[in-house]
Amino acid sequence: MILLEMILFPSARQVKFTPVLVLFAFFLSTSASVASVMGDSLTFTQSFSDTSKKDGTLSSDIDVKSEPGSIKLILGSLKNLGRTAVFSATYLGSYPPSSSDPTLPDTARIKGSNLGDGSYFTFVEFPAAPTPNIGSYIKVDLRATRKINSVVLVNVFNSATSYRTRARAFSLYSGLDSNSLSRVYQESDNVDTTAARYTMNIADIRAVRYLRLSIDRLDVSQATVISEMQIFGDGYVPEGAYISKVDSFPKPVNFARVFADAVFEDETSISFQMRTGPTRIVDSTLWSDWSDPVYFSSAAAAAAGEQLRVNEPRKYFQYRINLLTANVGTPRVKGISFTYQTSLIADSTSARIAPKEIPVFEKTALTYTVEANLSPGSIGFDTLKIHTPSPSSVQSVLINGTAVNYSAFTSPDRIIIGFPATIISSSVIDVKFTTKLISNARFTSEFVNKMSAWNPQYIDTKKIGGIDGWNIATSGVSPSTLVNVRVDPNPFTPNGDGKNDITVIDFAIANIEITKTLRIHIFDLYGKRIRTVSELRTGINPFYGDPRYGGKGIIWDGKNDEGKIVLPGVYLLQISIDTDNGGELLTKTVVVSY
Known about the structure:
Layout: H1 2-8, H2 31-38, E1 41-47, E2 62-63, E3 72-73, E4 86-90, E5 124-126, E6 137-154, E7 169-177, E8 180-187, E9 197-201, E10 207-217, E11 224-226, E12 228-234, E13 239-243, E14 247-263, E15 268-277, E16 294-296, H3 299-304, E17 306-307, E18 314-325, E19 332-341, E20 348-354, E21 357-359, E22 364-373, E23 381-387, E24 392-399, E25 402-403, E26 407-411, E27 414-423, E28 427-435, E29 441-442, E30 445-448, E31 457-458, E32 463-464, E33 467-468, E34 471-475, E35 482-488, E36 503-509, E37 516-523, E38 529-538, E39 541-543, E40 554-556, E41 569-577, E42 584-592
Parallel strand pairs: 21-34
Antiparallel strand pairs: 1-19, 2-3, 4-6, 5-11, 6-9, 6-10, 6-12, 7-8, 7-10, 13-18, 14-17, 14-18, 14-19, 15-16, 15-18, 20-22, 22-28, 23-27, 23-30, 24-25, 24-28, 26-27, 29-34, 30-31, 32-33, 35-36, 36-39, 36-40, 37-38, 37-41, 41-42
């Protein structure tokens, strides 16, 4: 509820008062009036005993036959697990040089993801000179616990004629912990010059999650080049997708909550996505993209359900259930259902943002425009919520070109605009605000009505040139990977009095193409590491704002790794991220006082 957000998070809000009483008090409507609209809630149900609803062309790695009435993942022995693994290459010698500048590495030939992309024409290369790569290695995260029985190294182009670049001598290590691996296979001299691939059959078959292939020896004059690293084993594949055929309602509806009847084993989960459109044929120019996933990892959570965020109102829909496992088991889904309303907040909507391109990391004024078409039967709306990728500041709100009174609540990931009265006629709303972006972004939005606050209507958008109208592109390049690092408050006082007990680490990640490892550590002035604040995988991302109030910044509570409050003094905060050229590191001082 917006009123609750304003009470709980006063430091995050920006409020422009109007002459009316309290604009957000409309949420305190009577239970009887809310019940009248909630009575409009209907339910769609799909049981998986009916296998005719599956789109066999789009679904993948899903077993619908071995347990009638349930869907589950297929066994990993039937598929190359390398296609869903995460690979990274670590160089202890020379990088393959770029053709444009030999002093820089060729990033296309050091990307670990090349080893699992299914293409024999992309690869990872370890040069033999000028500094040999003996001891360099490929690290593999299977993303789930597996019993691996074989690993296949494929020559570049899957060709026997590429034998000179084959891996000559190497060792394979495995384990549940990426830092504690044991050797399970060793090749001291790969002399085969007639095979396009080398198969390692693992004798010590046990449950593992991580693999490391270490380069023990290279050809004297030739680089070691691997195009694919195929992995096979027992257990279920890490993920699969059940995709339904297109279905429809007699008329456009507002989708509400999704529920699932599912059984979960340890470290398994499912997620639900939906896309919607105005026609039965999925058309990329008219249909929405797949919605952000809704996750469930327990039967209780799946039964309780979660709010759907899809473009609406729409008549046609298609849903996707992603089954996920990080262990040897699989989730099993017996059926799904979702609620919806035929009473509409607006008959149709369309959102767009301007300008369409802005400079990276430069504060820019934007205009978010929503066209809302309402009929006499529409419920109308009192609130507009815009989801933002970074903190924003509202400047003004116009309806049909005229400035109006409003109340605004802002936090690092959203703007909420409240109107003095319910809008019940067709209108064009312009919200003018400023923000800074680190990469291309989208600004989705929703309308809320006090009579059905439990089910917002997510606003639609039109595609122009295949791009959603609420998307923005950024131009220019950030000068570094770690950007806008800020620690606030600094000093801070973790003494438990409720004031400045924590400090928030704000920053952004830019200039990386695939996910990398981000680490945040605290050191004392003697160089001793006293706290690992965070270690995670991330892509381009703004870590802005206090996470207690909706932000994505990272908190240090003043404690060491033993859970004890550190002594007053000056400490060193170190943020590092792995990059293709060896990584980037930034250090700041942070003061603890009482």
